[in-house]
Design a protein that fits this description.
9-stranded mixed sheet, Urease, subunit C, domain 1, TIM Barrel, binds N-(aminocarbonyl)-beta-alanine, 12 helices, 8-stranded parallel sheet, about 25% strand, binds zinc ion, alpha/beta, 17 strands, single chain
């Protein structure tokens, strides 16, 4: 397939310029002011922004939480991602059976994604227990499977303790990989959960109150210190929600520690008041960590601007409101955690971020595409518009006005957390390895087109 995109305003993390892009067999072959080749498809992108496809490094497709399964699988979830301008994902594997080895979940996830995903994908490994066997096996997963990042949890049933976290940090540093962490102080969260339930405080708002900001920031600080003691092991904080956590991150970064951070679109745009909505609507927003007091949002946007937050992801983990989420209607602890966002991220970051003047358009590209690709070993195949990179390209019409609603989205779930958001600017083309897969919000790609990407280690 030969594709020519003409007259667009090309935006990368560092530049903005007018030009044409020519790709052949999925790879960008030439970028110049006026390319005249014939091609199978020619798109006139005059008046539009031409940006690298979005890279969402925090999704949970097909996540099995025991009593429920996330509604989007690798087909529906990647169709939704593509329609929203995302062309690659790195999905967090869920927990496997107790005691399983690392390769078990790698196999399970290849089974989920293979022949289903419509965009390219990788997985983060998950460490659910730590022993010599697991630490040894990491080498194979990093070097042979091409999966150089793992997530550890400081809460939930398969949490690791401090020594186990330390061993993972050390092992991944040695291997040139990176540890990602869900930081929350489990003991304190559990204390509040039990206390609230015993007191009959079962409404969705108590989900948020049982997981205070300091539970998260304390755990962030602890992980930063463990990473320091592990010889400056690379550390990536997922789904950062609050300004106290960010202070710890900034301090570590100032002293030169290899600490990266990610926030998610929901923490930038939604707040704790959502838990008090009528008709148990608060269940829609039960996620961990929870939505926070609005005063955190300014600090998170500032963190994006000053570079202390490198990535904006989604933590896409959709459960239906009318069925799965209702499990929590009489007891918030019974509600599956997670919310959709894989399709809304790029449009929201463009409209709420760029068009509202909170971030520059280069910063938008940096945090939604280039930085996640760099930190997780996908760059410059992904996250770039340059000769030799995959032709993963999104064309955004800055004049297109869209009111977000469940009905216009492709996620396989019965609500959007952003219903009624009025957007200025929306992706009109999504191109994955040189093929047009979305045009005007309609998916025109093929099931199974997505390929597993073996990631490189130690890129950052
Ligand atoms: O509530 C959330 N975030 N669910 C997904 C799992 C996780 O902790 O990232
Ligand atoms: Zn998490
Ligand atoms: Zn997550």
């Amino acid at each position: 397939m030969k594709l020519l995109i003409k007259n667009g305003t090309i935006v990368t993390a560092s530049d903005i310029y007018k030009g044409d892009i020519y790709s052949e067999n999925g790879i960008i072959k030439e970028i110049a002011t006026n390319i005249e080749y014939t091609a199978d498809e020619i798109i006139d992108a005059g008046g539009k922004y031409v940006v690298p496809g979005g890279v969402d490094v925090h999704t949970h497709l097909n996540l099995d939480v025991g009593f429920a399964r996330a509604n989007d699988d690798f087909y529906t979830g990647t169709v939704a991602a593509a329609c929203g301008g995302t062309t690659s994902i790195v999905d967090h594997m869920g927990f496997g059976p107790k005691g399983c080895d690392l390769k078990d979940q790698v196999n399970v996830y290849h089974g989920y994604a293979d022949k289903n995903a419509v965009i390219d994908y990788s997985f983060h490994g998950v460490v659910q227990h730590v022993d010599e066997g697991i630490l040894q096996e990491m080498k194979t997963i990093v070097e042979e499977e091409g999966i150089p990042s793992f997530k550890i949890y400081m809460t939930y049933d398969y949490r690791v303790n401090d020594v186990e976290a330390f061993k993972v940090l050390e092992a991944l540093k040695e291997l040139g990989g990176i540890t990602t962490v869900h930081p929350e102080n489990h003991e304190i969260v559990n204390y509040f959960r039990e206390k609230f339930i015993n007191e009959g405080k079962v409404a969705p708002i108590y989900h948020a109150l049982s997981r205070p900001e300091r539970c998260e920031s304390e755990a962030i600080n602890r992980m930063i210190d463990l990473a320091y003691m592990a010889g400056d092991a690379p550390l990536y904080i997922v789904h950062l929600t609050n300004k106290d956590g960010l202070k710890h991150i900034k301090r570590a970064q100032r002293r030169g520690q290899k600490v990266f951070s990610e926030t998610c679109i929901q923490y930038l745009l939604l707040d704790i008041d959502r838990y008090n909505g009528p008709n148990n609507e608060g269940l829609k927003y039960i996620m961990s960590p929870p939505l926070r007091d609005k005063r955190n949002q300014g600090a998170l946007w500032q963190g994006i601007r000053d570079g202390s937050i490198q990535v904006v992801a989604t933590d896409h983990c959709p459960f239906s409101f009318n069925k799965d989420k209702q499990r929590g209607k009489d007891d918030f602890t019974k509600c599956p955690n997670g919310a959709p966002g894989i399709e809304e991220r790029i449009p929201l970051m463009f409209s709420e971020g760029v068009m509202k003047g909170r971030i520059s358009i280069n910063k938008f590209v940096e945090v939604c595409s280039t930085n996640p690709a760099k930190i997780f070993g996908l760059y410059p195949k992904k996250g770039a518009i340059q000769v030799g990179s995959d032709a993963d390209i999104v064309i955004i019409d800055p004049d297109k006005e869209v009111k977000l609603s469940k009905d216009m989205l492709h996620e396989n779930v019965d609500y959007t957390a952003y219903e009624g958001f009025e957007l200025k600017g929306y992706p009109i083309y999504t191109i994955a390895r040189g093929e047009i897969i979305v045009k005007d919000n309609e998916f025109v790609g093929k099931k199974g087109y997505g390929e597993f990407i073996k990631r490189v280690k130690n890129y950052y």
